[in-house]
Every structure is written in structure tokens, then in C-alpha cells.
Amino acid sequence: MPEPSPPPEGPAGNGAVTLPPARSDAPVSPVARKNGFMSQQDTQAEVQHPQPSVGSIAAHRQHAVAAVVSDLEPDLDAGLDTYEEAPTDGAPLPQGRFLDRERSWLAFNERVLELAEDPNTPLLERANFLAIFASNLDEFFMVRVAGLKRRIATGVATRSASGLQPREVLEMIWARSRELMARHAACYHEDVAPALADEGIHLVRWTELTDKEQARLFTLFRHQIFPVLTPLAVDPAHPFPYISGLSLNLAVVVRNPVSGHKHFARVKVPPLLTRFLEASPGRYVPIEDVIAAPNHLEELFPGMEILEHHAFRITRNEDLEVEEDDAENLLQALEKELMRRRFGPPVRLEVEESIDREVLDLLVRELKISEAEVYPLPGPLDLTGLFRIHGLDRPELKYPKFVAGTHRDLAEVESASAPDIFAALRARDVLLHHPYDSFSTSVQAFLEQAAADPDVLAIKQTLYRTSGDSPIVDALIDAAESGKQVLVLVEIKARFDEHANIKWARKLEEAGCHVVYGLVGLKTHCKLSLVVRQEGETLRRYSHVGTGNYHPKTARLYEDLGLLTADPQVGADLSDLFNRLSGYSRRETYRRLLVAPKSLRDGLVARIDKEVQHHRVGRPAFVRIKVNSMVDEAVIDALYRASQAGVPVDIWVRGICAVRPGVPGLSENIRVRSILGRFLEHSRVFAFGNGGEPEVWIGSADMMHRNLDRRIEALVRVVDPGHRAALNRLLDTGMSDTTASWHLGPDGEWTRHATDADGQPLRNIQEMLIDARRRRRGTATP
Q1: The three-state (H, E, C) secondary structure of 123-191, written as one string
Q2: What is the reported pTM?
Q3: Spatial CA neighbour of 17 closest among 121, 96, 71
Q4: CA distance linking residue 65 with residue 389, whole number of Å
Q5: SS3 506
Q6: CATH number of the domain at 594-779, out of 3.30.870.10, 2.10.70.10, 3.30.420.10, 3.40.50.720?
Q7: Residue 430 to residue 544: CA distance in whole angstroms
Q8: Fewer CB atoms near the end CB (10 Å): N or C, the chain?
């Protein structure tokens, strides 16, 4: 770590700080930039919406792969973050010091797009990143844009922490998302699709099919597609139909040959059918093309003349609003709200750029949507369908396969029997790093062993998201059925997993588990397991505190940390916290935990402030934070003050970041990096120099209002010196200038650093960690 610089002085010696213009907060010109850069207007020109020329929501996707990758977006929250200046003892910090949250999220998704645009990314992974970008943007509109519109309509939206008015934010979103969607479509049509064709994977349209392929698909249409289609006419006797969110539709114009009258009809593309149909080996056509083929539409509208057809798709407000204080039964209230959610108002209309103006006017009028919310694009629409293409068995076009191994402290080397995890934890704490360390042979095995062990008396567990065939749930059910006391806290409000979690809650209840839903008004987002075991005359508690969900499938794709321990203090803390979640305990202080909403923000801010004190007296001081999102103003202001005092601050963020780094007099000691890749960077780490005795915490909390104020979150202090050193090495590597990453500038612009001055690739931290695990097993790449 370099020597910290002395406390800065403001320009002209008066302590004033001059902030650079927030280019990321201004409307963007439609000029696309090459290699991930585009020119932007620095002036606050009025946003112009051109006339039309024209997925990660696992619960809405019909492809198995999509359910695994949907969380490659940062967590979203529809509640707009209002900001109140926190009282401080020092000089006031400058206005405009926060970057806009929505713009920062769009910049995150642009980084996803840059991975799709990068020719060095394996080809099918590029297609996957295109699908992830589309899925991410779907959820952004469904939650953030919908929430913003709702607050504008009700008059409760206030100026954001970045200083923008709500309408300014909305217009920025329209302009910026329009530009990114155009780049996304261009990447598919001009780059990825042709490259796939060169590799024998042809994504074609109906007119490109041979007569033989069309005949084959006609047979498929008659027998498997036609029976499930329902054309809906629009006329005085048939009102305009409800169009469900994220559904793909055909707007069809037909003419009655007798009367000569033209009519509009809507045909919904069945969501349960395969998005891309195989016309012949290696050749795939969108299903809407098959439905819209001339002789196929004639089957749907016999006796009518087919004049034209156009694909369209709408995105609706799908955020939940459940007033828990008024809900006698939260489960029932949520089930009712889920039924209402599908009827949310539209917030985006995607149409093929070839759409007829008269048809578009009809859609705009009937859907009650503004022209600014219309996005004309070249077909095919909804490129989340590329998740299926990524699933093709072409390993040479994907990242090399990696199979996680058992953590060395849990591996059984003397026999083929499963390791005794309890014995291993009595010997030492185990710090897990997924997906490099196997989830199934660590956390999953921990709970399965607990369920089968006759000496285990009780298991307490939080579940925020899990898989459809979860071995974690199966283990809890087995434990309950064998007579163990099992408490499961199921967060049934986990966005877009509500249906699945309601299902698991009922299944667990039926098996005899005690199922609770946490505290009124708070989501339970902490990742905790507690096992109570009878050992002789005493009871011993074994604990797991993690940064990721108990989800065996995403554990193979998400980068997460977890601590397995038999430490009595952690066990006592988890007992107290579970008692609070299931009963009426009001405990707010813990031994080795920081818990939101009461102590987590204050605990982190106090530690940041303490680094300033260490630095002033010459002791080692630093702040290093790795999170998914950095938005909370109180935490950011503490980091600004630490920077002003000369404390070096490193922030490794995957998604949203409202910090302006590198501003003279404010944040020149702050560096912000972002890393995206084959694995979703999901862990949260908080490290402090602490005067030469480093302090490191891991846990579930991001630095956002909803995490710190409206959720139960938990961080655990890592006490093993070797574990602390390993986590600090990880943070050092992630922040190193020799590691490939994106760097955030003071104007809010992210710049990708993938090669060095000689054009050689920088280190890929994920590949480095994969290779380290392979070397440990003797299978490293040469």
C-alpha cells in the first residue's frame, strides 16, 4: 500500500472543492462510440426523442440457463433514495458530490454489453452477455423506471442525491437506454450473429430458410404451435386485449375481402415454447417468424387477407407493494399482490423498426404509453432468447469448464468417506470462496450432515433464494421429519422469487418445520445457518455466515464468501439474532456481528472514522470495500472525509456506485474499480488498517438505503489472521493496476483497462483464482 498523501488543501486555500461536470448525469448524444466509448454532450441540452424508425428475471424465463444467470444485474429497489444531509463536525462537503444512481446502473449494464462486444470473450459467452444485458434492462424498467414513474405521478418523488429532478432522471434514462439498446442490437446483428454463423450456428429469419426447412416447420406449426395460439381481434365487439408484461406479440392487420374493411388482431407468442426453433441442424429461427409466416397466419385467420404483421413487446411495472402492517397473513397478502402485479401499467414498448405508423399509433393509444417510451429496434426482439443458444453443446466456444473442488480444510484424504465437517470446524474456522471452493461439499454437506446426525438437536436457517430442486430444503425437511427442531426464515418477498419461496414455505411447513417470515417491514437478506449439537454434557453451536444465497446452482456461477465456524461467540450471536427474527427479542448489539438496520451503518462509519484517527497519529490506516452497490450517502460521506484526511480508500464495486473518486480536495485518495466476467462478483468485504491490527468483515449487506434501513443484514468479523491476510490479498489483487478492470473517473465515466501499455492482456483475477485451485489439485493449465 503506498504511503498516504497529506491532507489536501482546497483551491485558493479556502477549502473549496471544485467538482468536475458529471458527464454521466447529462443526456447522451445518439452517436455510438467505438470499443465501448461514445461521445457525450456536456451541456444540459433538452433531450430529444427521435421518432420511431424503431432479460434477469429468472421467474419469467422459460430457459434453465436464464434462471442461473439472471442475477448478473445489481440488486434493484423501486424506492427512490431521498437524501438528507447528515450532521457533521467538520466543514460541509460540496453539493453535487454524488453520482446519479440510475445513470450508474445503466453504466453497469454498459459494462456487461462491452463484454459482449469484446472479440476476446468466447463467442457463445458473448451471446450470453447479450442475453444478460437484455434481461437486466427488463428488470431495470420493471422496477426502477416503474417506481420513478409511479412517484412522479403521485407527486411524492423528490430531487435525488445527485441533484437531478425526477423528470430529469426519467428523460436521461430514456435517452441513455435508447442508445444502449441500439448498440446491443448492432452488436448482435453486425458482430455476434455473423460470428456464430462462421462457427456453424446460424440464427436466421423465415425468408432465409430453404423450402425443405419451411415445410418441416409448417408441420411443426400445425401440430405443436397452432393448437396453443389464440388470435384476439380488436373491433367494437372485442376490446383491445390485455398485453402481459415481457410477452412477445404479433400485431396483425387483416382485411375482409367481402367488406374491404381492415381489422387489427393480436397474437401472443406462447411463452412456454422454445424461443429459437431448429429448422435443420445448426440453423435456428425465432418462433415469431414461424407463427408469422404467410401460410401460417392464414391458418389463424382463414378467409381473411393478411396485410401486415409486426412483433412488439411491452414491459410493465412489476414491483410489489404489500402493506405488511395491514396484512393479517403476509403469505396470503403476497399471493394476492402477485396476482395484481401482472396488471401493472406499461413503462416501455419495444417494436420492430419496420412497424407501420398506423399500427404503432394504435398500440401507443391503447397501451396509454408516451412516444418517449417507444423503442423501435431491428428484429428479433427479446434477445433473452440467446440464453438457449448459449446452452448449445459447443464447449470450444465457451469459457473452459471449471469444476470446483472441496476446500482443503474439509477434504478427507485418508479414505473415500465423506469428511466429518463438525470435527473439521472444532479444529479451525473454514473460510470458503465460491465458486472456487465447492458449495456442495461444504455448506450443503454441512447442512446434510446436520440433518442426518442423531446428536444434532436443532437447525436454524435463513432462505432468501434457492433452487427449484434444492438439496438445502430437502435436508431441512429430512431434519424436521427425524424429530429435530428446525426453524426456517423464508423471505417470501425476494423479488421475482416470490412464487418459488411461497411454494417452499408451504412445503417446509407441511414437513413440520417452524417457518417464519421475519420482521414486519423488513426483508431478511442475511445468509445464516446455525446447528446446535449435543456433545457429551454440553451443547456446541456450529455456524455459517455467508455473502451469497443458499442456492446450489448459482453457487457455481456467483463469487461469494462464507465462514464456517464453531466459535462460541458467533454461535451465541446467531442464536440471539434468530430469536429476534422469530420472536420478540430486541437485542441490537452482538459480539462478532454487525446487524442492520440498527448497528451496521453506524458500525462501518465508526470504523472509517477510526481510520482517520489512526492516520493522524501515524499508524497504518486504510479502507478497502468490496460490494455490489455503493449508494448510501452517510457511508460515502465518511469515505470522503477519510480521503480528505489522507486515508487511502479502495472501493471494488460490481454495479452501482455514487462515489466520485479522484476529485481534488474531496476524493483524490479514493479509487473505484469494477470487475465483471464469467462469474458474478457477489461477495461483500470490509477491511480496515486499524492501526496495524487489520480488521476484516464479510456478510450480506450492500451499501444501499434498503440494505441498511429496510433489511436484516449481517456482517461477521473474521478473526483468523490467515483468513484476514487472504481477504486483504484478494482486495489488493482486485484493485491492482495490473488486473483487468474498469476504472471510475470523477465525471462518472467508466474506462475499461484490459491491456497494458504494450497491448498485452492484464491479469484476469477470476482465471487466476481458477488456476490457483487447479494447481492445488495438480491440474493447472500450462
Answers
A1: HHHHHHHHHHHHHHHHHHHHHHHHHHHHHHHHCCCCCCCCCCCHHHHHHHHHHHHHHHHHHHHHHHHHH
A2: 0.86
A3: 96
A4: 10
A5: helix
A6: 3.30.870.10
A7: 10
A8: C
Pairing between β-strand 558-565 and β-strand 684-688 as defined by DSSP bridges: unpaired
Residue 502: CB atoms within 10 Å: 17
Amino acid 154: pLDDT:
79
Cβ contact 130:188 at 8 Å: yes
Q: Which residues are annotated as a binding site for Mg(2+)?
A: 465, 495
In degrees and rounded to multiples of 5, residue 84 shows phi and psi of -125, 130
pLDDT in tens, 105-148: 999 999 999 999 999 999 999 999 999 999 999 999 998 999 88
Grid cell at residue 584: 420478540
Nearest to 529 by CA among 604, 473, 596: 473
Give the DSSP H/E element, type plus range, for residue 222: none
Residue ranges of the annotated binding site are 136, 465, 495, 558, 654, 682
Please give the CATH number for the structural domain made up of 207-381: 3.30.1840.10
Higher pLDDT, 338 or 520: 520
- What is the set of active-site residues? 525
Establish whether the linkage from the previous residue to 435 is cis, with ω within 30° of 0.
yes
Question: Any idea what DSSP says for residue 48?
Answer: P
Q: Is the pLDDT of residue 35 over 60?
A: no
Same fold, 421-586 and 594-779: yes
Is 682 in contact with 117 (CB distance < 8 Å)?
Answer: no
Residue 117 parent element (H or E): helix 101-117
> Distance between CA atoms of 90 and 525, rounded to whole angstroms?
34
Bridge pairing between strands 283-286 and 456-463: unpaired
Residue 426 has pLDDT above 60, yes or no: yes
SS3 83: coil
Three-state DSSP class for residue 466: coil
Which residue is listed with cell 402477485?
Answer: 338
Give the DSSP letter string of 403-447: --B--TTT---SSSSPP-HHHHHHH--EEEEETTB-STTTHHHHH
Binding residues for ATP: 136, 558, 654, 682
